[in-house]
Structures are given as C-alpha cells and as structure tokens.
Amino acid sequence: MMTVLTGIGVGSTAAAGPCVQFTPPVNAPTDEAVPSGPEQLATATEAIRSALGKVCAELSAAAEVNAGQTLGDVLAATAEMASDPEYAELAIGHLATHGPANALTVATEEFATMFRAIGGYMAERVADLNSVRDRAVAHILGVESGGLAELTEPAVVVAHELTPADTSGLDMSKVIALVTEVGGPTSHTAIIARQLGLPCVVKVDGATTVPAGTVLAVDGARGQVIVDPDERTLAAIQERMERYARLLDDDRPGATSDGHPVQLLANIGTTADARAAASQPVEGIGLFRTEFMFLDSDQEPCIEVQAEAYREVLSAFAGRKVVVRTLDAGADKPLAYANLSIEANPALGQRAYRLVRSVPHLMAHQLTALAQAIDACPNTETWVMAPMISTATEAADFMARAEAAGLGGKARIGIMVEVPAAALCADEVLSTVQFASIGTNDLAQYTMATDRELGALADLIDRWQPAVLRLVAQTAEAGQRTATPVGVCGESASDPLMALVLVGMGITSLSMSTASIPAVRFALRHTSLETCQQMARAALGAADSTEAVSAVQNLLNEEVRQAMALE
Ligand code: PEP
Ligand code: MG
User: Fold this and answer.
1) Pocket test for ligand 1, best of 270, 273, 327, 328 (most atoms within 8 A of CB)
2) Active site residue 188
C-alpha cells in the first residue's frame, strides 16, 4: 500500500526506484575477552594499531579519488583522525579492562565527548570519528564493515545517517536519490545531494525500517518519500522530470519575462569546482569560498600558492564575473593558525573578517595574492568581498585594506551582509562600499538566534521567516537608494519561489549551486518584474513563514506552478 513519509526536502527534483539500505555498522561484541598476559596484550595492541592504519589508508585513498572537491577534503581530515597517535594510545590504555574492539569504542566515546565539549565544527566531526571507529572495529573483528553491498542497478540509498566516508564508498553513478533518518538542510548528505543535483529528503522518521527492494519515490521539492508509489504517482513524477530536463536547454542569461536582468551565478569552493562550473551556462561565480584552500593546510598557504589558485579560478572565467570572498574561518570552519584561542561561542567570536583584529597578516597576504591574480587575468571582471561585516566602520576598514593591497581600480570591493546589524544600518554600510552580497544562511542564523546546523530547529531558521525577509528587503532597498548592487549568495537564492521574491525586493544577482540554476532561470523567465514585486509585498506582509509561502504561491502562474511541482 502506498504510504508517504515526510522530512526536509533538498533540491527541486524527484526520482523513483528500488531502495537499498545502508546497513548499520558492526558493534564491538559484549563478550569480547580482555587480554591477559603480555603476549595477548601485544596482540591486542597490534590489532588496534593495524586496524586504525588500514582505516587511514582506505580513507586517504578515497580522499585522493575525490581530490580537489569538498568531499576529498573531508575524507582527508577523517583519515587524519584515524592516524592520530593519541587516539590509538587512548584505546591501548583501555586494554587493561577491555578487549581491543571495546577498548577502541570506549576511547572513541572519550574523544567524542571532548569534541562535543569544544562544540561547533569539532562537534560536527563526531559522526566522522564514529565512522572511523566502525571501520576499525570491523577490521579488528575480521568482518565486513557495515555499508552497502555493491550497487548493481540504479537505486535510492536509505541510511540512518551518511557521513562523507560512507558516501565515498558509493558508486554515485548508480545512486538516484538519498534518504536519511537524521540531518538538517545543511548536513553533509544535503550538501552532497545539492552538489550532484540528486533528489534527497533528510530527517525522515522510520526510513530505515523500509525493506530493501521496496520502490520509493523521493521528492526533494516536496520533502516526501512515497513508499510503494502507484502508477499515477510514478507517471506524474516522470512527467515532472521530463519537464525539468527541458529546463536545461535554456542557457540564456537570467531575466524576468519582461526582460529585467538578474545575473545567475554559481557558488564554488575549489579550483575543481571552478573548472566544472565554467562549462555551464552561468554568468560567472557569485561566491568563491576561498577558505577551503586554507582548511586543507596546517599553515597559511604562501602568497604564491594562493595567487596561483586564484589565477586558475579567474582564468576559467575570462570574460565573465567572479566574486571572491576573503577567508571565512572560525565557528564551523576553525583554523588552528587563525583562531588562536578557544572561544565559548565561536559563531559570535573572532571569525571571518574579524580575524583582522588578531591575525591581520592573513587578510593582507590574501589581498596581495588576489591583486597578483587579477593582474594576470585582466579579462575577468573580479569582485572581492569580506564576510561577516557588522558596521560601516568595518566596511570602510576593509575598503582601506583592499586599497592598500593594490586592489583599488582593479576589482570592485564589497562586503557580505550576514549580520543583522549590517542589514539594519544598510544605508550607511552600503554607502561605504561598491557592492554587497547577502549571506542568507548566516543572516537567518543570527537573526533567529538558531544554529544553522541544527535540524531540530529547522522551522525557526526557515528562509521564509518574516524577520529574515524584512532584513533582506531593507538591504535591497538601501542598495537601490545608494545605487549599490546587492546580490544574494546564501541558500535562499537556490529556491525558485524565493528567487522571485528576492528579485521583487530589488536584488540584482542570485548565486547558488550550478544544479539549482535551471529551475531558478525558468521561474524568472516566466514571471514579470511586477509580479515579483507583488510577491515580495505579499511575503513581507505575511504573519509567518507558512503564510508567506502560500501568499507567494497564490501569485504564481500555471506554467511555473507546474515546473515547481505545485500543481
Ligand atoms: C551565508 O552565510 O549565507 C553564506 C553564503 O556563507 P556561508 O554559507 O559560507 O557561511
Ligand atoms: Mg556565511
């Protein structure tokens, strides 16, 4: 019988097929013998060292395969955890009272407790740490680690949770959709699904109880997983996907139906991402997150290395625009050589632009490297912005630093609006700079006082919250008053319905994952600027996020409703 499970949807696509369950990992046995005598102790010690060595080798190999991509970076960091001598020593220390698999399990929990106490990025690494434990325990016991049998046909992958290490073992060419029981809109699974343009629903209660082989229709647009869908449902999904495929044929620049231009740009994090995006019909890069290069390294990459990476990105977009964001380290992206002290609330601490207070050389070196790259790529229209600017004084300070590094006249200089203070004082802040880009992910986090990683509070950090919408609108209006371009590069830009509202507010460019662009382009091409403005007024006048969504949906024309699966 057809049943519908609901969760948090990711993306605008849907797919149906048989499901495979990602099997739970093997646990350490409760009756494992404690080593007695020096010989058994030596064997158990060797078992722990060898298991962790194998895990490190497996993950390093997977990191190589995915080198240059975000997944590769995360895998390399996870491999490092497996090779941490303190981790092995802690486990070996427990051999006095436990067998090797249990000793490793206890040591992992101790490490995890420490990570959780540090919070932020480290707390998020607990899932990776546990995946190291699961693989190592399987090696100690000499059994297959959990996971998936080889995929022989296209399938929907269902799991309690998928870590990057888990996804590295999947043959993604056969994965048609992802479903997890936990996670939020910005969890690893959601990010990978978005990057690959796969339909995905996270936080689906009971997903792992569905028997393997059952057909599931995964609808990312609606946040639904339909178990045993009937013929009508399957046909409707197929029709929708055929319509969606036709969207990809349109490669024109972004504009409303009456020709009001809105630049459609891509978000990238690495040079490999830049090369992939360059072959797509995008008008440029709207957010180059430069921090990935820094996070990959245990010391600041030298100016020459940075300049070379920036040059690669800029040259891939000769004739187009690239918006480079300066280092956004701290909070969920800590860097040992940038975040010098442990803070109780790193999301509110010395992160992003604020690092100029403690480690000003990082910004100076980066801006110098950018100036060199821009000199080498005069045909690229380069814009440079700083993240997390809170005041007009900070905006002016960033302008001065960019000027001092020789960027004046070579690049447009701007700032990100992702702190409510900057949005509230947008007139003053925007008068100081040459452009702004709104980071709606952090703007929502700071406006709603809600950690953006927490699935449990996803309703509070909803992009349709009136408070967040009003701050975006105030910033866009200030942009119009001061003749300053204001774009959006947070996740809000990738939602076609929200994109219409943003354009109606006066936003001049939208930047998102390349997979999200076709649906946004279609929605814009089929809606007039006047309707977008009506939608913006409707959303801003709504009492809550649910009312805002339905008020805007009511103004959609039939063609866009169908394309967005709202029929
Ligand atoms: C944002 O905060 O919306 C943003 C685009 O920056 P990041 O997601 O990298 O913090
Ligand atoms: Mg941000």
Assistant:
1) 328
2) yes
Instruction: Establish whether domains 3-24+147-245 and 248-563 are of one fold.
Output: no
Asked if 333 contacts 387 with a C-beta cutoff of 8 angstroms, the reply is no
Give the pLDDT of residue 503. 98
Ligand lying closest to the C-alpha of residue 489 = 1
Which value, to the nearest 10 degrees, does the dihedral of the CA atoms of residues 126, 129, 134, 137 take? -130
CB atoms near residue 335 (< 10 Å):
22
Closest by CA to 411, choosing from 420, 426, 399, is 399
pLDDT, tens digit (0-9, with 9 covering 90-100), for 371-419: 999 999 999 999 999 999 999 999 999 999 999 999 999 999 999 999 9
H/E stretch holding 43: helix 37-65
Give the helix, strand, coil percentages of the chain, each rounded to 5: 50, 15, 35
By CB atoms closer than 10 A (0-12, 13-18, 19+), residue 435 is buried
**Residue 425 confidence (pLDDT):** 98
Q: pLDDT value at position 168?
A: 67
DSSP letters along 339-391, please? Answer: --S--S-GGGSS-GGGGGGT-HHHHHHHHHHHHHHHHH-TTSEEEEEES---S
Which residue, 202, 209, 246, 245, is CA-closest to 227? Answer: 209
**Ligand 1 pocket, mutate which of 415, 441, 510 (most atoms under 8 A from CB):** 441
Closest to 322 (Cα-Cα) out of 292, 289, 295? 289
Query: Residue 117: which residues within 8 A CB-CB, separation 6 or more?
Result: none
Given the CA of residue 267, which atom of ligand 1 is nearest to it?
5
Residue ranges in the chain modelled with pLDDT below 50: none
CATH number of 248-563: 3.20.20.60
In angstroms, the CA 186 to CA 207 distance is 19
Using left for φ > 0, alpha for ψ between -120 and 50, and beta otherwise, residue 196 falls in alpha
The residue from 94, 98, 188, 365 that is catalytic is 188
Tell me phi and psi for residue 131, to 5 degrees. Answer: -70, -30
How far is the CA of 136 from the CAs of 30, 76, 82, 335, 521, in angstroms?
16, 16, 9, 27, 47
Dist CA 549 CA 498 (whole Å): 9
The number of beta carbons lying within 10 Å of the beta carbon of residue 294 is: 20
| Correct CATH for 37-141 of 1.10.274.10, 3.75.10.10, 1.20.85.10, 1.10.600.10 | 1.10.274.10
Q: Which atom of ligand 1 is nearest to the CA of 387?
A: 6
State residue 491's pLDDT score. 87
What residue segments make up the domains of the chain, in order of their start?
3-24+147-245, 37-141, 248-563
Overall pTM > 0.70: yes
Domain 3-24+147-245 has CATH 3.50.30.10: yes
Distance (Å, whole) CA 371 – CA 294 = 18
Ligand minimally distant from the alpha carbon of residue 488:
1
Predicted confidence at residue 120, as pLDDT, reads 64
